[in-house]
Amino acid sequence: MPELPEMETYRKLLNEQIAGTVITGTEVTREKSINVSPEAFNEQLTGRTVWYVERRGKHLIFHLDNGKRLELHLMLGGFLFFGREEDKPDRTAQVTLRFDKGNLYFMGLRLGHLHLLSVKEVEGALSKLGPDPFDKRLTSEKFAALFDKKRGSLKASLVDQHVIAGIGNCYADEIAYTASIRPDAKIPLLRDEDWERLHRSMHSVLKEAISRGGYMDQPLTATDVLTGGYESVFQVYERAGETCGRCGGTIEQIEVASRKAYLCPGCQKE
């Protein structure tokens, strides 16, 4: 599932491609991916200018010139491609937005959605999201306070979008590793210095992942060389059985709250 760095990469690249351009038409092949009829979707979007694209957690919000918004959540398996029909991946697009210089294809939206909403409806839909990891007001103390009432494992809380928005399975493991804390550590047992390390690690891991275009292997355009660069530098995620680059131990896969998790038992001690 795309997480904060992947969606931030999309945000940046989409603003370069479509900000200030006009939607010339739409196509919907799966009505469940949108929240209005395909006819209404096309009528309300054709002729509208996309002002800019915003990210909130794992969501993208397309700001339109009539005050409406398109709210996107890719969920598991969703991805985007912008370009010509002949260049797009050999996958069915559930929704397509057409522009003069190319089409924006929304693919893999079996669980995800692209909803046409008012400003008020967007705020309501995203009102329960926790703060963004890069919120300037989120000090290490306020970060720790987000977990005050939690009693379960660290990873389960890091991936809870109501606690903090944008972190999923991959980056939760990478953040825990960088902070030298096990992903299955119990929240009440963590000390102030642990939270300070986690706060620093969260920023460093996510910033590096963004700089490398996240881990998705599907580029946004035919000339996109940014997307997917972080996969080659995973420290523990999906590296079970490989050697830890920090201590030389063997990376293990465990289960945390019914999710796979990866760690180095040498670096991340009980």
From TrEMBL:
Domain FPG-type: 235-269
One Pfam short name: Fapy_DNA_glyco
Molecular function as annotated in GO: oxidized purine nucleobase lesion DNA N-glycosylase activity
Cofactor: Zn(2+)
EC number: 3.2.2.23, 4.2.99.18
Residues annotated as domain Formamidopyrimidine-DNA glycosylase catalytic: 2-106
Reaction catalysis annotation: 2'-deoxyribonucleotide-(2'-deoxyribose 5'-phosphate)-2'-deoxyribonucleotide-DNA = a 3'-end 2'-deoxyribonucleotide-(2,3-dehydro-2,3-deoxyribose 5'-phosphate)-DNA + a 5'-end 5'-phospho-2'-deoxyribonucleoside-DNA + H(+); Hydrolysis of DNA containing ring-opened 7-methylguanine residues, releasing 2,6-diamino-4-hydroxy-5-(N-methyl)formamidopyrimidine
InterPro entries assigned: FPG_cat, FPG_Glyclase, FPG_N, H2TH_FPG, Ribosomal_uS13-like_H2TH, Znf_DNA_glyclase/AP_lyase, Znf_FPG/IleRS
Keywords per UniProt: DNA damage, DNA repair, DNA-binding, Glycosidase, Hydrolase, Lyase, Metal-binding, Multifunctional enzyme, Zinc, Zinc-finger
Quaternary data: Monomer.
Assigned protein family: Belongs to the FPG family.
Protein name: Formamidopyrimidine-DNA glycosylase
Organism: Paenibacillus thailandensis
Organism ancestry: Bacteria, Bacillati, Bacillota, Bacilli, Bacillales
